[in-house]
Amino acid sequence: MNIGKFIGSVLVIIGTMIGAGMLALPLVSAQAGFVWASLVTVAVWVLMTVTGLLVLEVNLALDRGACSFSSMAEKTLGKAGKLITWLVCLLLLYALTAAYMSGASSLLTNNILEVYFHIKVANFISAILFTLVFGGMVFWSTRATDYANRGLISIKGALLFIAIASLLPQINISAMLQSQHIATSDKCLFAMVPIFLCAFGYHTVIPSLRIYIGDKPKELKQMIVCGTTVALVIYLLWLATTLGVVPMHGENSFSSIAQNNSSVDGLVNTINLLAHSRWVSIGVNGFSNVAMTTSFLGVTLGLFDFLADGCKRPNSRFGRTQTALITFVPPLIFAFYFPGGFILALKYAAIFVAILEIILPALMVYKLRRNTHLHSAHLVGGGNIVLLLITGVGFALIFLQLLNSLTS
Fold first, then answer.
1. pLDDT at 146 (0 to 100)
2. Is pLDDT of 29 > 90?
3. 1.10.3720.10, 3.40.140.100, 3.40.1170.60, 1.20.1740.10: which CATH number matches 3-407?
């Protein structure tokens, strides 16, 4: 296969994972420390790589022209499976859109308007401005969104490299490991896992890559493993730099961020204050803003097309206006009432990720292997034990997240 096509497909997987959710990782793992955060990262990487390969197994059993998530669920789990998949996809996209609107509004207010223009506005006004500009691109056309996204993703990669490269020399190893002794707190670990789960979500692009690449099981498997592994390395570097630069306690620390009810904006400001570096400021500020924007564009484009198809809205200006209203108004209401709700929305998104990208793939493969009419060119090893284990982990993650939400 063409090496450029292979690399491009791997970058699609990496780009789907590396986004705004990455910014929340140090916020939820600071109390546990780098060692425990790394262990959780590796565990989630293994889980999400295996479930991605399960999705690939089901996908390769279907015709190339009808291999969407919805089609996979219908062919293996019936109409009930298709309905559940459709509903979970909708809720997941809404939750992610709400998270990015909330995070973008706090960044726009506290990191751009106030710092550079000395203008103080309410978060909900920032959320509306952000939605009008970038939501307007989604409303106007897929081409406009595509062109904007291409340029921003290239910039995002460069800014991420600058941010991590500039922070690595400033890592304080003792600060990075200082909170390790309290990592046995169940509540702390429970809060980490859902956010890390969202950070490794990429499964919905597998059908698109299969259509693009063709029926090449070996190459598709290598793409998934390579993509998730590169994301793993980037996440570990990001955790090492942020947890090694920002202390747990003190004036500019994770504790002060939590006390001020800050989110991503608080983390970015704290890193800038501690690093005293122009390059760090450029890299961290730039990456945080661009990552939030590219994540928003990607998710809302999917949500817009999903709703347009599901609600049978025409592709006219009036029809697209109707679709835009049902796409952007519900998450905008969330951003209005929960201006700091970035992490909150990601936690609830993790429930839908657990259903769509962990439980459903295992159930679909189980049914597929008992279907005499469908056969896949790719099989994941481990038999029913692996499928049962993954299903159990998925339900456990949902239960723990619900329990954590009720007790927090």
1. 65
2. no
3. 1.20.1740.10
